[in-house]
Amino acid sequence: MIQRIQTVYLAVAAIALAILLFSDAVHGSGPPARWGTLLLGIPAWGGAVAAIFMYKDRHRQRRLIVAVQVSTILAVVVLYASLFIQGALSVRTMAGVDVMRLVELMLPLAAYLCLLLARRGVTRDIRLVESMDRIR
Prior knowledge:
Elements: H1 5-21, H2 24-27, H3 31-52, H4 58-86, E1 92-93, E2 96-97, H5 99-135
Antiparallel strand pairs: 1-2
Helix pairs in contact: 1-3, 1-5, 3-4, 4-5
């Protein structure tokens, strides 16, 4: 449902993952980081978008959100590890801190946080529906 807060969290997570997939942090790095992040990031993005429309089956929506969280964590590990190995993980330049690079590196963490909040919202809805069923 569009009016549920977890829909907003899922949409923000999908937008953050989409921006990450097209960012310079992924495409400016070497092939291992690019392919690893794309192979894990595209299903994460698709899962976040699909979870928005699964509001009628909350249990399946929660399982999909957990799978997207795992995929996001794996994409973060692949991206950060390959950037660390290449020595390109730093956000400092001669002129100071590269803010855009910092934002690009924080996008998957923000997406994970939004997915965590969405999962909490779905769990709260499941509990609410189960408590209403007990009253009947």
